[in-house]
Amino acid sequence: MTDLKATAQGMFDAIAAGNDIDAAIDTYMAEDFVEHEAVPGMGSTRDTPRQMFTMMHAAFPDFAVEVHEMLQDGDKVVARITMGGTHQGEFMGVPASGNRVGVDAIDILQFRGDKCIAHWGVMDMAGMMEQMGAAPRS
Length: 138
Prior knowledge:
Helix content: 25-40%
Number of strands: 5
Distance between the termini: 44 Å
Structural class: alpha+beta
Strand order of the largest sheet: 1-5-4-3-2
Largest sheet: 5 strands, mixed
Number of helices: 4
Order of helices and strands: HHEHEEEEH
Strand content: 35-45%
């Protein structure tokens, strides 16, 4: 069985590095990739993560992805991660706060060979908004 966890880790590392988001997306995501996580104002193609991670790097110049654990079952990898950095630019309408932000997420990635063909995810957006100062702390 192919070690898709290693492929997923490579994808997370390339996206976090931010050197070339387009190259990272094109390397790890199939042309027919489908995004199943609803992202406001964005579609469901591989341009969705391209746009999202470009925005993340602009707003969080020290953007990082910490992978806590990954599980593989057949052609799918489930990852529990934390993404974030220092909020130094506008993000989804929220002006820079200077705050450190860490947002927890669970991702399900489906692969065909060495390419990700689909993503389902749940991200703690409420917690992210609180940390950026856009929502009251609970």
